[in-house]
Amino acid sequence: MKTEELRYLQRLAELYPTIGKASTEIINLQSILNLPKGTEHFLSDIHGEYEAFSHVLRNGSGAVRKKIDDVFGHTLSNSDKRSLATLVYYPKEKIAYVKKKESDMQNWYKITLYRLIEVCKTTASKYTRSKVRKALPSDYAYVIEELITEKAEVLDKEAYYDSIVDTIIDIGRAENFIIALAELIQRLVVDHLHVLGDIYDRGPGPHFIMDRLMDYHSLDIQWGNHDVVWMGAAVGQAACMATVIRNSIRYGNLDILEDGYGINMMPLAAFAMEVYGDDPCQVFEVHGNPSNYNALEKELSRKMHKAISIIQFKLEGVLAKEHPDFHMENRCVLEGIDPEKGTVQLPDGSVHNLLDTHFPTIDWEHPYELTDREKEVVERLSSAFRNCEKLQNHMQLLLDKGGLYKTYNGNLLFHGSIPLNEDGTLKEVEIYGETCKGKALYDKLEAYVRKAFFTVDEKEKKASQDILWYIWAGPNSPLYGKDKMTTFERYFIADKETHKEKKNAYYHLWEKEEVVNRMLEEFGLDPEEGHIINGHVPVHQLEGENPVKCDGKVIVIDGGFCEAYRNVTGIAGYTLVYSSYGLSLTAHEPFTSAEDAVETERDIVSNRVAVRYNPRRALVGDTDNGKALKERIQELKQLLDAYRKGVIKEKK
C-alpha cells in the first residue's frame, strides 16, 4: 500500500474507528444510493420581484400540487386539492381566511391534519430518516416523526394516530401544527434550489429575496450581471456603485438603498438640488411605478437621476481609457458632445441631436474629470456601501453559494452566454494580457471577482474591482453577451437605431447541435445526456419564441419575472423542475398578491411542459452526489480491508 493511501485511510479511520462503524456507514450509504433523486428547482432573472419569487418558492413551481395529486389521486376533488395546496403555500393566511367562513373548525382541523400528514409521509419517503429528522421543526419534531413513520409494532394504528391528532386539537395547538406541517412539506418537496442570476435591480425587493436565500436549506447561485454590478458597488468600485444607484432611481426603488440597506442618499440629493435646481431634467423621468411619490419627490428623483447618470458616464469613460483591452471605447461618449450645437458624435461617426443639453458639471477640455463636489459625493456613497453590514452579508452569500457557472447532475448552469465566434468556435477573450476562452474564461473572471473582495494587494484589488464593471457590461463578458450597453444613447438620443445592442453569436447558434455539443464537452459534460440551462435574455412568448432550444439541449428560463418585461414576454417567468421522473418547464402567470392567492385558491402555474422524461426513475446513485457516495463506499471498503489485514488497528 502506498504511503499516501495509507495516510488517507488513517485519517478516515479517525471518523470510523472500528469495523462495525465502517460497515454501518457502507450500509447507510448504499441504501441512500437507491433512494429517488431529490427534486431540483431552477429560477432565473428574479429582478427584485420578491412576492412572485416567494410564491414560486412556496409552490415549488407546481411540485407541491403534483405531490398532492400523487397522494390523493381521484379520492379528493380538484377543489379540495386546490384548497389543500393553498394551505401548504400560505398556512397562516389560509387558516385566518377559513376561520371567517368555517362553522366547525374542530372538524376542519382534524381533516386538514390527516391530509397534511399523508402528504408529509409521501414527501418524506424519498429521503433517509436522518435527513427528514434534520428538516423537522424543533418544537414538533418528535410528534411529526411519530405521525409520518409507519410503526409495525402498533396493532391498532388508526387509534394510535387518532389519539395523537385529537390531543393536538384538544390542547389548542392545531393551528401551529398545521403551519409546521405545511412548511415541512415546502421544505421537503424541493431538495435543492438553483438561482441562475439577476436577483437584483428593477423590482422593489432584492434585499428580501437575499434574506430568504440566507436561510434556504440547499442552494447554489450563478451570478448574473446585475448581481455582479452590486458586488462591485459593495467593494467600492465607483462606476458599479453609480450604476446601482442610477438603476435604483430609474425604477423608483431608492427604498432598497435607503430602507433596505440603510445607505444615506442625502449627499446625492443635496448635490443634485445644488447643481440641477433649475433644470427640469425631463429626460430622467423615473420609469418604475413610484405611485407613492408626490410631485416634489418626483422632481428630486429626476435631478438625482441626472446627477448620478453624468457621474456614471464620467467614471465609465475613465475606465474605458484605462483599460483598452476591455474594448469598451464606445462608452467614451462625453467627448463627442458639441455643447454649442447640442449634438453628439458617437464613436461610430454618426451625429445626433441631444434631448438634453444642460451639462453644468462637464469641463469640455476634460470631460471625464469629476468636479470636487462630485468626488465628495462618490467618496461618501462609496464609504456607505463598503460599510453596510447587511449588504456585505448578502454579498458574502453570493460568494459562498455562487459562481459564474456550475455543472450539476450532468447539466451546465450559467446566467448569460458562452462567447462564441460566428462559426460557432469558442471566442478568445483577452483579460489583462492573458487570452482565454470557454471554461477557462469563466474560471479566470470568477477568480478576479473573488480577488476583488479578498486580495490585500492594492494594485491587484484595483484591477479585480475594475473587472466587475467589465463583467457587468463588457462586449465579451459571458454575463452580458452584447457588443455594448447603450445607456447614454437611451437617455439622450431619440433615434432608436442608436439604442440597439447586438447579441453575441451564442444567441443565434444555440439551435445548432454541433455547437451545443462542443460547449457541453468544453465543461466536461456528456453531450448526449447534458443540457445547458441559462437565463438573461427574456423569452418572447408573445412572438412565438420557444424557451426550449436545440431539441431540448438548451433551456432558457428567463420568461419575465420582472413586470417591466411582461409586455414583450406575455408571461411572468419560466422555471424548471428536475425530479426523479425528468425535466419539466413551467410557465407562470403574473402574481397578484398572497391575499388573492389565498382567497381565490388560484395558482400562477399556467402551463407545464415535459422537456425530458427519464426512461426509468432516477436514483441518488445517478447523481453527482451519488458518484461521491460511491467513491466513499470504495474508500470505506479499503478501510475495512486494512482493518482485517491488520494494516490499521481498530480503536474501540
From TrEMBL:
InterPro entries on file: FBPtase_class3, Metallo-depent_PP-like
Enzyme class per UniProt: hydrolase
EC number, as in UniProt: 3.1.3.11
Source organism, top-level taxon: Bacteria
Keywords from the UniProt entry: Carbohydrate metabolism, Hydrolase, Manganese
Pfam families: FBPase_2
Catalytic activity: beta-D-fructose 1,6-bisphosphate + H2O = beta-D-fructose 6-phosphate + phosphate
Pathway(s) of this molecule: Carbohydrate biosynthesis; gluconeogenesis
Cofactor or coenzyme needed: Mn(2+)
Keyword Cell cycle: no
Protein family according to the UniProt entry: Belongs to the FBPase class 3 family.
Protein known as: Fructose-1,6-bisphosphatase class 3
Gene field: fbp
